[in-house]
């Protein structure tokens, strides 16, 4: 995990309250501008005002009040919440955590969330248990998903005040997700696949179609093995469509190894050969550039690549 310097926003976290120390970006802006930056809903803003759950320099003021540099805006950011999934013990792999977010490394053969509240063996059950063990009484808020057989990094939001802006960042591709994919055959050059994707109405999968949603995947070749007939590549999502990497690679006749929907079983690996190995984004409060990486799972170590290639 790396933190690269950026424009740091000074803040304090005391109990349930977040204090933002106003910098040049919000000098002579209003409190409402801060709320809009956080993408808070009208209902949330209304409740903050109604309950006087924010103050400026220790006084409640209207949200059209102008801010000055070094003002202290204190906002209620957390609530005592009930954990909303059944906690289940599991040796959860924590890749990164601070007061606002949690990033975990999802294991093989694990769905993100259960279909019913009583279902077990999902990532949300494991995170619920971790919160309980660490005395964090929070709702489980996953910002994105991975397929059941895809391993790798998943971002959770711990702070209810920040979920809207993280959702917006994900929707607008301000959270960069990179994957290691092992595909069938030899791809000998980097490429960008720009092919629209839509759901196939006749089977439970996606397909390439001119009537679909825009989908762009950038592919960088890491290595290939001609003897075993596979290519290892890094895939960066420029859009976020369901099964995007799987569909795009299959569309150029290089499906992922052991992809049950778009390819065939491989002797090299027993499950979909896809690993979400990196998340990169600017933290919405601290303005730090956060880069988190996850090592390859054991069943992908046969590709024998150096860590510094990732």
From TrEMBL:
Pfam family for this entry, one: PseudoU_synth_2
Domain Pseudouridine synthase RsuA/RluA-like residues, every copy: 102-251
Keyword Chloroplast applies: no
Record key words, sorted: Isomerase
Domain of life, per lineage: Bacteria
Annotated GO MF terms: catalytic activity, acting on RNA; pseudouridine synthase activity; RNA binding
Catalytic activity: a uridine in RNA = a pseudouridine in RNA
Keyword Isomerase: yes
SUPFAM superfamilies: Pseudouridine synthase
Protein name: RNA pseudouridylate synthase
